[in-house]
Amino acid sequence: MKKSDSLQFTARIQNLFTEILTYHFKRKPSKFDRQTLFGTYASLLFRKASGSPLLQLLKQDMIGEFEAVEVLVKNEANQKIDDTDLESVIMSVRDKDDTLFILVTSGDVPSDDFDRLYRVFTRYQVIILPLGEDDIPKLENFVKNGNINACLVILAALADRVSSGDEKLPDAWAHRVKRQKEAIKSRLAELGRLKTPQIRTLVKKLAFLMSFEKSGSEVSKACASVRISRKLFYLWLENDPVFRKLVHI
Q1: Same domain, yes or no: 178 and 241
Q2: pTM for this structure?
Q3: Statement to judge: residues 114 and 40 lie in one domain
Q4: Which of 11, 41, 172, 192 has the fewest CB atoms within 10 Å around its CB?
Q5: Rounded Cα–Cα distance for residues 75 and 9 (Å)
């Protein structure tokens, strides 16, 4: 990759996440270079972002409580992340458990990276979300269509994967996780139609939709997991036709 191409890739990623993270939460991010042991990364940092829908969604799902989001892209001609790159990032950020990190590579994300990032989470309580080249166009397409909700759910589901280590689940639980992923995927295109005047309500509804299959499609368990009453759930069903449709997908 030429230097000009790498600059374009970095700008593309930074523009994408600025769109996603400032859509509901009007904060300007800062840009700087993060130096690690083996390289330099272009950083897009959203400070004091605990009120953003993405971080509220992670808090709602008890994945973690974060104060900031930092998006990292390798600042070199070759922007693919190999084992050495990943280790250098881990060493650089492992003491920053108040920040959600998103690490973007111009290549694919190997499946064993998730095992390593799960171990990082269990040891340091730091979450690093790996995004590969195939993931970016999907997010860009949702942004283009104004479906920021789908982007939030995709990132939250990725954080759930990194923090749960579901690759090692027993067969019964693995089947449930697979079913949940399929249900989330089937709802993504319609999530853009889910709108509420309050961010808090939007986060609650998204969290419920994410946890519904995980709870075995049991309303009581899903309500308990997102800390809402059954009465509120049925009010949503009655008054929000988009939510009702999403529940029944």
Answers
A1: yes
A2: 0.92
A3: yes
A4: 172
A5: 10
Residues 6+ apart with CB under 8 A from 63: 127, 156, 159, 160, 163
Alpha-helical segments (H) within the chain: 3-22, 53-60, 83-93, 111-124, 135-144, 148-164, 171-187, 199-211, 219-225, 230-239, 241-247
> Tens of pLDDT along 146-160?
999 999 999 999 999
Q: 60 with 207: CB under 8 angstroms?
A: yes
| Same domain as 134, residue 173 | no
Q: What is the pLDDT of residue 218?
A: 83
User: Does residue 126 sit in the same domain as residue 178?
Assistant: no
Question: What would you report as the CA-atom Rg of the chain, rounded to the nearest whole angstrom?
Answer: 18
List, for residues 33-78, the tens digit of each pLDDT value.
Answer: 999 988 899 999 999 999 999 999 999 888 999 999 999 999 988 8
What span, in angstroms and rounded, lies between the C-alpha atoms of 15 and 128?
A: 20
Indicate if 92 and 186 belong to the same structural domain: no
**The total number of structural domains that make up the chain:** 2
DSSP 8-class letter at 189: G
Domain containing 215: what range? Answer: 169-247
- Identity of the amino acid at 143: V
Q: Residue 2: pLDDT band by 50, 70, 90 thresholds?
A: low
- Rounded to 5°, angle at Cα 61 from 30 and 222: 150
CA distance 1 to 160: 32
Tell me, yes or no, whether 134 and 173 share the same domain: no
